[in-house]
Amino acid sequence: MIAPVPIALTVNHERVEALVLPRLNLADFLRDHLSLTGTHVGCEHGVCGACTVRVNGDIVRSCLILAIQAENATVETIEGLSDSGEIADLQSAFHQRNALQCGFCTPAMLMAAQDLLLTNPDPDRDQIREHLSGNYCRCTGYHAIVDAVESTAHARLERAG
Amino acid sequence: MKAPAFNYARASSVQEAIDLLSHYGDRAKVLSGGQSLMPALNLRLLAPEWLIDIGPIVDLRRISVESGLLTIGASTRHADLHRSPDIAAHAPLLKDAVAHVAHPAIRNRGTIGGSLAHADPASELPACMVALDATIVVLGPDGERRIPAVDFFVGIYETQLLPGELLVAIEVPKRAAGVRHFFSEHVRRSGDYAMAGLAAEAEIDGDAFVRLRLGFFAVGERPILATAARHLIGRPVTEAVLAQACAALDDELAPQDDHQATAGMRRYLARQLLVECIVSLLGRSDLRTKVVA
């Protein structure tokens, strides 16, 4: 029998300690152990992008990281970004532009879009599409998502003056 | 699906990793960024008894430049390569290539050593290593082995790495002044594995190539340093010369059919990439002739 292993990490600014089996991936840890179900599990092999979270500031696929690999890491999920207000404008733009229908891809789409806007505050539409190309949406056809990200970028630039 | 059960050991040094690998042999797999290993585990294509995590070994994540050589630690991530000024200055082919590797979230975790050790014939970095004439540095219980990239890749997911050995670094010759490069691939969707791709580096004197290394990928069981380049070196490149090189290229490729593309389509795309490469490197748009299917 393989025994559970203790891990300690920070999730959405809270210290978390748990006992996990080595095979447990970070997405399942967040969902099943911490009840942070905004991180979605789609393909479980890194293709759909629905499980995107931040680890130490970088977006990653949480289905392709073991929970034990996140030992001492700082993890931020959609719940963290949403509660802090960091992406309130982006969420509002998604709402206004109808950039979601079923909503399954939306949390990860927001994570990836925010990642782009932090590194490139004025992306063109091709750059937005490229950065979101690892996040599948089966409802919208993407145009509305690109619109929402673009309008958020413009609004932030205006606010920044 | 979920990964099958395995034991996990964290290595805090290269020596510890080699000791663990020597002990467990082929019952263990090395875990680095996990961007190829984790999908394989989740799809139950692999079921190792042990995973040896080399992620905590900070020494393996570095890029250094010394005299004529760029040394890249095995755990250097694709995102590190993309933003490194040293890579941009001394191996710009790599900077171009990593932008085509999967997606940003995967490039933030995936490592160069992992990509090379995994040796997917459709992945970009193995072909770059072949084109750049890189050396793969491997450590094992019997010491160090230095393997030229052209010899390192043996077949589909198969390299010269032995159980108990760890890929620790990659040495790339610093690019000399005047050397040019080309990178392109054909994919169904951005970030997908290529249907055919080409990483190339060249030295040009006037209107002729002095040196031309063509690293093709996704058109055979391993990255291929195309010998067709010999037709293009040391003489002015004409349409006839290029056609001859395309025919020679076709002879040395052995692509397979899969769900993305037939072997015939891969051959066609490879010839088209060769033409685009020569047009780009020589700045000769007059050579952009229609490639016969």
General description of the model:
- The complex is a heterodimer of chains A (161) and B (293).
- Chain A is 39% helix and 16% strand.
- In chain A, helix 3 crosses helix 6.
- Chain A has six helices and five strands, in the order ββαβββααααα.
- Chain A is elongated, with a radius of gyration of 16 Å.
- In chain A, strand 3 and strand 4 form a beta hairpin.
- Chain A starts with a strand and ends with a helix.
- Chain A is an alpha+beta fold and 161 residues long.
- Chain A folds into two domains: 77 residues, Beta-grasp domain (Ubiquitin-like (UB roll), Roll); 74 residues, [2Fe-2S]-binding domain (DNA polymerase, domain 1, Orthogonal Bundle).
- Chain B is an alpha+beta fold.
- Chain B is 32% helix and 26% strand.
- Chain B contains eleven helices and 14 strands.
- In chain B, the strands form four sheets. Chain B has a five-stranded antiparallel sheet. In chain B, strands 11-12-13-14 form a four-stranded antiparallel sheet.
- The longest helix of chain B is centred in the C-terminal third of the chain and has 20 residues.
- Classes of the chains: A alpha+beta (161), B alpha+beta (293).
- Chains A and B meet through strand 4, helix 4 and helix 5 of A and strand 1, helix 2 and helix 6 of B.
Biggest interface reads: A-B, 32 and 31 residues
Order of helices and strands of chain A: EEHEEEHHHHH
> In percent, how much strand structure appears in the residues of chain B?
25-35%
The tally of strands of chain B reads 14
Output the keywords.
heterodimer; A: 161 residues; alpha+beta; DNA polymerase, domain 1; 2 domains; 5-stranded mixed sheet; 6 helices; 16% strand; B: 293 residues; Uridine Diphospho-n-acetylenolpyruvylglucosamine Reductase, domain 2; Uridine Diphospho-n-acetylenolpyruvylglucosamine Reductase, domain 3; 4-stranded antiparallel sheet
